[in-house]
Write a structure and sequence with these properties.
Elements (H helix, E strand, L loop, with lengths): L9 E3 L9 H4 L3 E5 L2 E3 L2 E5 L4 E10 L5 E7 L2 E5 L4 H15 L1
Antiparallel strand pairs: 1-4, 2-3, 2-7, 4-5, 5-6
């Protein structure tokens, strides 16, 4: 997992956050939290060992999702190149055009 050295210690999906970085997010950041891949992480911090996830459908008074801070081992990594998955899509698109 040498790819983790490229990732920041703290990253957020919220564009208003000072920890937001669209260039890094476009690379496809994934999170392993306590050995389990999490897909609903809104923000993470590796050095402090926490992630923030939305608390269901609850909203604060400004309409933003309520967040839960979960503590544990945080391991961010980049997704692999998805070129192999785009190849099967081409025949399905061609079939739909016919």
């Amino acid at each position: 997992m040498s790819q983790t050295s490229n990732l920041p210690d703290r990253l957020s999906l919220d564009p208003r956050s000072p920890h937001f970085d669209s260039d890094v997010l476009q690379q496809g950041v994934r999170i392993n939290f306590n050995g389990v891949e999490k897909t609903n992480v809104e923000e993470y911090c590796v050095s402090e060992g926490w992630i923030k996830v939305a608390a269901g459908r609850s909203r604060d008074r400004h309409g933003n999702p309520m967040m839960l801070k979960l503590k544990g081992k945080v391991e961010p990594y980049l997704t692999e190149s998805e070129d192999t998955e785009t190849a099967p899509e081409a025949p399905t698109d061609a079939a739909s055009d016919a």
